[in-house]
Amino acid sequence: MNKLKKIKTLSFAKFQALLMGLTGVLFGILYSFGGLFIDILVSLEIVSPGLASTPGLSFGTVLAFGALIGMPLLFALIGFSFGIIEALLFNLVAKRFGGIQVPF
């Protein structure tokens, strides 16, 4: 068992940005295609527009596909920011309490 007493801040922030960016891709796909599915159901009059809160297929449907680009970018930016904060906090706490044991 090795004790981890310090992590590189920028490396950890990049790692967090990657993980959160991938999460953003998943949520972007769910949002875009889920919205498309609901809009198609409303346009085919299977679901009422009032119940789904959408007029059906429209320009908003096209804009929802912007989530395939926007959500990963936003999530990655948030992940990078929180990664910096987490790494700094870990380094501060690990210095005081001796780190954590990690099996390598």
Task: Please tell me about this protein's structure.
This protein has 104 residues and is mainly α. It has one domain (2-102). It is built from four helices and two strands, in the order E-H-H-H-H-E. A two-stranded antiparallel sheet has the order 1-2. Helix 1 packs antiparallel against helix 4 (67-97).
Give the proportion of residues in helices. over 70%
Compute the average pLDDT.
90
Structural class: mainly alpha
Enumerate the strands of the largest sheet in spatial order, edge to edge or round the barrel. 1-2
Number of E-type strands: 2
Domain count, please report it: 1
Strand content: 5-15%
Order of helices and strands: EHHHHE
Q: Compute the separation of the termini in Å.
A: 7 Å
Tally of separate helices: 4
The radius of gyration over CA amounts to 21 Å
What general form does the structure show? rod-shaped
Are there runs of 5+ residues with pLDDT below 50, and where? none
Largest sheet: 2 strands, antiparallel
Secondary-structure map with pairings?
Layout: E1 2-4, H1 9-43, H2 49-52, H3 59-64, H4 67-97, E2 100-102
Antiparallel strand pairs: 1-2
Helix pairs in contact: 1-4
Give a quick set of tags describing it.
104 residues, mainly alpha
Short description:
The chain is mainly α and 104 residues long.
